[in-house]
Amino acid sequence: MKLYDNRFITIYRDNDFEAFYEVGVTHRRKLILAHMIINLLPLVMAWFIASALEAVGALYWLFTGIAVLMYVIVSVETIAYMFPDARRIFKRIFPWTIPALALVGGYLGYVIGLTAFGGSEDEALPGTLAYALDYDFASTSFFYGMMMGGFFLAHAGTSLFLKASRVLYTKRAELESDVRFAREVQGRFLQDASLEQGDGGLTAFGRSVPASELGGDYFELTEMPDGHWIASVGDISGHSFGAGLLMSVTKSALQTHLSYQQEPDEILGHLNQMLVRQSDRSMFATMVLLSVHPETREIRLSNAGHIPVYHYVAATQTLEKRHIRGMALGMSARASYQNLRFRADAGDVLIVCSDGLTETRDEAGKVRDFAFFETMLQEQLQQTPVTANAQSITETLLARVEETNFATQPEDDITLIVLRF
Questions:
Q1: Which site in 82, 110, 284, 386 is 20 to 30 Å from 311, CA atoms measured?
Q2: Taking the alpha carbons of 51, 56, 61, 66 in that order, is the dihedral positive or negative?
């Protein structure tokens, strides 16, 4: 709904302001301030011109009053339309002000006109047309024209500014809505996962903490129909909307392949072919995939460009790396993958994580190497009680990493799966 609209001047702008309702209050306040400052410029200019010309008469006050009134209306309109509740009140009140302003303006025009042309020259009020004709008509007219012209030019500029901004804010609101939806979908993908063997012999827990609205990390922790467990952590390059979308596609494809593939190396091979077809070489995915048999404690591991799996051996209280080379997913159709087989004993812990845990910053702001994380991890696991399950170990490690990370803000997604035998 628009009360008055043309290319330059718009009053009662529903369409112009509705685009701003979906953005934050801070941006709305900035727009209000910009609008009020721009429209204030003609009034400041009028004051300076009036001081220079000493044109302080009735006609000056009439036009100045009209300009001030228009400025107040524009400001109230802008503020009201920045906030939906105030907008409804403004829409009910504003139309009633137009007849009142017309009556007041008509009466003032009648009085000034009567004084200017109906009385004698001595009765002409300073600033009226008759007074200006006898005195400095050119200067006074120039002043009035500059004052009102400046106001309308400022209002026209603001209207064009709003129309251009509306497009940007509309696009931003649409994008933010899409990101929120994608974040909700991704949140369902990355909910905490927990597994426990019937007799309590093996527990597993996984958690992912994105660094931004859409993360690139993903994980899978599930029990297959034949009883073996699948634990996987991956990372998409970058932190863009495309990375979040590719993460969702990769995780969905992984869940699909798990239904008919058993070997980790074969699953990674199929995922690699899928990503080669569906993404360019600037985006790729790393992944480590474990197949764990709770009864025999035998583990098969395949790796596609991901960081190693850490195996804490309880018998010797040492930390070992379980790693086998493999190219990241989506980089080459000719990439091949193999399995690494090993066994875990009672009390052992497997740490499957993303590089968000290993690449933290020290007090000087420098990125630490893997040695710091490995030392911290080994010391923490040595202090872990025998009765601690995978979830308690996960929460302790995440808290420890957060405590020792001196980055001013989250820089990378953090994903961690812990398996405790």
A1: 284
A2: negative
Phi then psi for residue 256, to 5 deg, are -65, -45
Residue 292: beta bridge partners? 229, 299
pLDDT tens digits for 372-396?
Answer: 999 999 999 999 888 889 999 999 9
Strand order in the sheet with 340-343: 217-223, 229-236, 285-293, 298-304, 340-343
**75 vs 32, 36, 119, 161, CA distance in Å?**
8, 6, 39, 15
Question: Rounded to whole angstroms, how far apart are CA atoms 266 and 268?
Answer: 5
d(CA 363, CA 408): 11
Q: Each residue of 37-48: b (16+ CB within 10 Å) or e?
A: ebbeebbebbee
Q: Which fold has domain 192-420?
A: Phosphatase 2c; domain 1 (3.60.40)
DSSP 122: G
The neighbouring-strand residues paired with 304 are 287
Residues written for the chain? 421
CB-based contact 128:111 (threshold 8 Å) = no
Could you tell me the pLDDT band of residue 340, with boundaries at 50, 70 and 90? very high
DSSP string, 192-221: -EEEE-TTSS-EEEEEEE-SSSS--EEEEE
**3-class state of residue 140 by DSSP:** helix
Separation CA 388–CA 391 (nearest Å): 8
| CA 172/CA 58 separation, integer angstroms | 49
CB-based contact 416:206 (threshold 8 Å): yes
Burial class (CB in 10 A: 0-12, 13-18, 19+), 134: exposed
**What are the tokens at 188?**
């369902």
The enclosing H or E element of 302 equals strand 298-304
- Return the closest-CA partner of residue 155 out of 5, 47, 20: 5
Gap between the Cα atoms of 382 and 417, Å rounded: 18
Pairing of strands 203-209, 414-420: antiparallel
Distances from the Cα of 373 to the Cα of 277, 401, 420, angstroms: 36, 8, 19
Residue 236 banded pLDDT, cuts 50, 70, 90: confident
Sorted by where each begins, the domain ranges of the chain are 4-184, 192-420
